[in-house]
Amino acid sequence: MRVLVVEDEAFLAEMIAEGLRRDALAVDVAGDGLEALRKLQLGEYDVLVLDRDLPGIHGDEVCRRVVEQRLMTRVLMLTAAGTVRDRVEGLGLGADDYLAKPFAYAELLARVLALGRRARPALPPVLERAGIVLDTARRQASREGRHLHLSRKEFAVLEALLRAEGAVVSGEDLIEQVWEEHTSYRTTAVRVTLSKLRAKLGEPPAVETVSGAGYRIAS
What we know:
By secondary structure, this protein is an alpha/beta fold. Helix content is 42%, strand content 21%. A five-stranded parallel beta sheet has the order 2-1-3-4-5, sandwiched between helices. A four-stranded antiparallel beta sheet has the order 6-7-8-9, with helices on one face. Strands 10-11 form a two-stranded antiparallel sheet. It is elongated, with a radius of gyration of 18 Å.
């Protein structure tokens, strides 16, 4: 899942981003509304965590443009303006959810994951295929009852493959869904992560390579 955090307080933006990355999400950061719109045009994001009071282009305008352009991105407004009236106004602009500052990180994560499930055709929070069980809510994975100790990137790659329901996922799609835009070694990272994931999944092989196309979970 890819998330764009738009927050002009750099410390808070990085705190949110690092927390979400630890929970296996690919996260980019923008410090103002103009940068946010540029990133939204260049990449596909499942969830937009949007501060409302932004310099330059206001967060309300960013939200309006997301709605007008019919982007698949779900919008979570994160702001200090937390009265009922503020929430009603934010949701009226087209935001999908609204969380007031200060907030508990656990609640933020839960809301981001819930919105992410709505950003694409709905799939259950527990994904199963080839004996693999992936619980996206609890961030747990197993195969044939054996618990898998996965890194956050391994977990995210496995989730992307399982969500494809047997379809081929290209390396470019994995990069788009799992790695942040500033990562310079993403192509190599895909190969390395898949190699480690295959080793942890064990036998029989669960991840197939489709020559010239990408990867898929065996049926």
